[in-house]
Amino acid sequence: MFGSNLQLKINFRIKFIVFFAGFFIPFILNAQPREVVAKKGEGVYRLLTRNGLSASEYMDAFIELNKGRLGEDNMLFAGAKYILPDTEIDPAAAAETTTSPVKTARFDIFGEDYAEVEILDDKLDGAIYYLVAGHGGPDPGAVGYYNNRMLCEDEYAYDVTLRLARELIEYGATVYMITRDQNDGIRDESYLKPDKDERCYPNQVIPINQLRRLRQRTDAVNNLYRKNRGAFQRMIAIHVDARSHGENIDVFFYHDRRSTNGEKASRTLQNKFQEKYDTHQPGRGYHGTVSPRALYVVRNTYPVAVYIELGNINHFRDQQRFILPNNRQALANWLTEGLLDDFDNNK
Ligand SMILES: [Zn+2]
C-alpha cells in the first residue's frame, strides 16, 4: 500500500467490531429507526456501505428518510445524525459476520485529520492506481480569481486527488500519489493556499521546464508499472483547467486515441457521472464528454490512462462549487464509484 519508501507509516491495527445478530433484530421488529453519525468527508454511499447496507439498494430510501438533513447534492454534514433505512436482516448472514476485523492503516500524506484510514472492504484488492494531480511544484496550472483570492488549479486538483486516493485505499486498492505534497493533507478549507513545494514520486523536485516536468511524472509511473507488471493498473490524471465549457461544472474525460481500454474506462466514469447527475440533480443536464486527446502523460504512460478535467477554475459557477470541500469530496466519491465499476468490468 503506497510503497514503503513513501515514509507512510503503515500501522495495521486490527480492531474487532462485534455485530450481535440478536442486538439488531429487536430494533427491526420494533421498527426503531437506526441513527448513525456522518464522519468527516463521508458521502451517502460511504455511510451506507460502512453500515452494511448496499448503496444501490438503499440510496433512494436513505435520501427520502433524511430529506431536510442533507446539503446540496445530498451532501452529508459531518457530525450530524442520519436515519438508516429499515433492512431485513438475515440472521444467518448476520451470524457469519459476528466478528468482523476492521483494518486501519496510517498515511501521513492525508494530513493529521485524515491520516488514519479504515480499510472497509477488499473490492479493489489487486488494483493499482497511479494518481497524477495536474501541475504542481513551480507550475500552478490555470489560475482563477474569486473574491480577490487567487485559486490555483494545482491545489484544487491535488485536494480532489488526495480524497480519491483515500477512498480507493478504503476499498483495498494500492495507490501511488505521483504528485505529492508533504505538508498539505486533505484540506477542508475553501481557499487552498498556493505553494510550490509539491514533489514527484518518490521525492523528486519538479522542474520548471514543462517537457521535463511531464517526462518526470511519466517515468515515475512507468517505473512502477514495470514493477507491477501483470496487475490491473490505471493512471488517472486530474486537472481543473481553464478551457471554456459553458455554464456547468461538467467533468470531461480524455483517453489516448490508440487505447480501447482507456476509452472504455473513460466511458465507465462518464456513465457514473451521468447516473449521479440524473439521480441527484435531475433537469440540470450533464454534458461531460469522452474524447481522444493528444496529451503527453496519457500518450506516454504504460497503464490504461484516463485524464479528467473537473471543471473550469476561471468560471464563477465552477469556482463556487470547487471552494466547497464537500463538493470536492463528492467528486472523489463519484470517481471512486466509477473506478469500482471499471475494475469490476475489466479486471
Ligand atoms: Zn491542468
From TrEMBL:
Source organism, top-level taxon: Bacteria
Reactions catalysed, as given in the entry: Hydrolyzes the link between N-acetylmuramoyl residues and L-amino acid residues in certain cell-wall glycopeptides
Keyword Transmembrane among UniProt keywords: yes
Coiled-coil region(s): none
EC identifiers of the protein: 3.5.1.28
EC class of the enzyme, as a word: hydrolase
Family annotation (Gene3D superfamilies): Zn-dependent exopeptidases
Transmembrane segments: 12-29
Alphabetic keyword roster: Hydrolase, Membrane, Transmembrane, Transmembrane helix
A UniProt-annotated Pfam family: Amidase_3
Cellular component terms per the entry's GO annotation: outer membrane-bounded periplasmic space
Domain MurNAc-LAA: 233-340
GO biological process: peptidoglycan catabolic process
Molecular functions per Gene Ontology: N-acetylmuramoyl-L-alanine amidase activity
Protein name stated in the entry: N-acetylmuramoyl-L-alanine amidase
The species this protein was found in: Tangfeifania diversioriginum
